Amino acid sequence: MAALPETGKTQREVLGRFCSGITVVTAMTDAGPVGFTCQSFASLSLDPPLVSFNPARTSTTWPLIRNAGSFCINVLSVEQKDISNAFARSGADRFTGLPWTPAPSGAPVLEGVIAWADCRLWAEYDGGDHTIVAAQVCALAEGPDEDPLLFYRGGYGLPARW
Fold first, then answer.
1. Do the Cβ atoms of 157 and 79 come closer than 8 Å?
2. Is the confidence at residue 22, as pLDDT, over 70?
3. In this structure, is residue 100 part of a structural domain?
């Protein structure tokens, strides 16, 4: 990743100062549950109710979820770093030993998440090395009143001074 001429910093270094929450996007396929970790989740519209997220074009899981048509956005708590890490790895069965219940669509709602939104694909747009996904919210709920898992400057959490 090249440094930007004006600052000598990379885009990742500068924009890494923006704190984001961590989610896991899940779906039920004919072969079983699938999912991936995603930090680019945002509320998009209240009317109609839409959210957005941006999977990498290299993702092998997003095409499976896209084909399922419906999926669940699971908002992780600060206690769920292990889940974030597990769903960020490729090649492993991410659901082994992980309790979950089905959302109305059948997509997995992971146990202990602080919120979830059951969605269906609304639209996809080109986003360079990512895809911009807009999804219609069909159902949602809060989980336990815990702090969110945050990503900041390449790691979990906020600076010690906070």
1. no
2. yes
3. yes
